[in-house]
Amino acid sequence: MLWAMFNAADLFDLTQTEHAVLFEGCQQAWEVLKKIEPYLATAVPRQHPPKRFPGATIGERVIIGEGTLVEPGAMIKGPAIIGKNCHVRHNAYLRENVIIGDGCVVGNASELKNALTPSWATRRTWARASRFPMSSSCPAT
Questions:
Q1: Could you report the per-residue pLDDT of 100-122, keeping only the tens digit for each?
Q2: SS3 for 112-127, per residue?
Q3: What gap in Å lies between CA 54 and CA 56, rounded to an integer?
Q4: Domains of the chain, earliest start first
Q5: How confident is the model at residue 134 (pLDDT cuts 50, 70, 90)?
Q6: CA quadruple 112, 116, 120, 121: dihedral positive or negative?
Q7: pLDDT tens track for 15-35
Q8: Dihedral through CA 23, CA 24, CA 30, CA 33, nearest 10?
Q9: How far apart are the first and last CA of the chain?
Q10: In this predicted structure, what is the pLDDT of residue 128?
Q11: Which member of 32, 34, 109, 133 has the lowest number of beta carbons within 10 Å of its beta carbon?
Q12: 120 touches 16 (CB < 8 A)
């Protein structure tokens, strides 16, 4: 079956993320999406005050890793975890329940909600996943 090719370990190197626990018990990569909200509910306390980046809007329940740059105009609503050495470009909109791994770039005018981007994600990682188009034979979760 085509959908069997979407195993998380086949698509991502889970040794490079501190959030690999989210994938435990998942048969397909997309099953992790329903686990993000409860994970962040316990992992992200309210920040007082939240980290400040001039011209960017950062919500209270956002953790931003060391060396990460958030450009003016970006909005991170939260809850969210942004890894170390990331770059959130201008006008990026990170809504609720977002985990961005270390070393990732969130492009300008991007919008993410209920999403997990593994550490050091490359175009190659996403290109591998996109070679297998979704079909109507995919099971509902």
A1: 999 999 999 999 999 998 887 65
A2: ECCEEECCCCCHHHHH
A3: 6
A4: 32-122 (2.160.10.10)
A5: very low
A6: negative
A7: 777 888 888 888 888 888 999
A8: -70
A9: 16
A10: 41
A11: 133
A12: yes
Q: What is the dihedral sign for C-alpha 136, 34, 101, 25? A: negative
Q: What are the beta bridge partners of residue 133?
A: none
CA–CA separation, 132 and 141 (whole Å): 18
Cα separation of 70 and 98, whole Å? 15
Rounded Cα–Cα distance for residues 127 and 86 (Å): 21
Give pLDDT, residue 49. Answer: 60
Beta carbons of 80 and 101 less than 8 angstroms apart: no
- Cβ atoms of residues 94 and 77 within 8 Å: yes
Q: How far apart are CA 126 and CA 2, in angstroms?
A: 17
| Cβ proximity of 40 and 79 under 8 Å | yes
- Write down the pTM of the prediction: 0.78
C-alpha separations of 37 from 19, 60, 109 in Å = 13, 16, 23
